[in-house]
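Table S2 (continued). Query chain:
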Amino acid sequence: MGEIIVIASGKGGTGKTTVTVNLAIALCKKNKKVLIIDCDCGMRGSDLMLGLDKNLVYDTSDVIAGNCFTEDAIYPYQNVKGLYLMPAPINPEDEIAPQVMKQFTDTVKNSYDYILIDSPAGIGSSFTTAVVPANRAFIVTNTEPISIRGAINVRHALLKNGKKDIRLIINRFNEKKFRELNIYKDLDEIIDLCQTQLIGIVPDDYQLVCFSQSGKPSLNTSPSSEAFSKIADRILGKNVQLAFPKKMK
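Corresponding output:
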């Protein structure tokens, strides 16, 4: 039975979709079969990051409406074995109801080792749709106060939706900028504020952005790819040490 993980953030611009796509690739490189379900209705971006945007004909709403078979709306990413995408509806009016999404994921989860649900930023109605099927949740945050406040709000919303297995990913971490900002003493203070156990830190990485935005994330071999690999190992239950920057330990 596949594990379903929702990946959420309190505000836009944290790199949540980039995290979702690259974490899926890291899991596939460990011989796992992964489906990304984009739940960011009206603002979908996973298809662009995977270079699949020109191939799309159907999306989740077409499956729900009976306009196509499930497999017609699931697109393989040819550059990585075992990675598949189900895109979100491009029209916001086609938003899927939470219980309908739950019923749908129940029908497909046995076909995958992991389903990663890319939640829209914030805690609106589409957030609830993304959260309901999940048995685990990852919150993506940056180290700025507004992003951290958003992460705290998302945690509260996840708990209200009955999600207790929650982990934190600190994304786009730049130690120099963190020191210059001089708002928080260290990363432990951020983790304490978010009240969420850390599962990984992804460094600020221009190469990651370039490959993701050009639809070629699988080509990334920069330090961020190692960070995603370690997060994937921790998802798989391996005892991998958290990759704190040396000076931040």
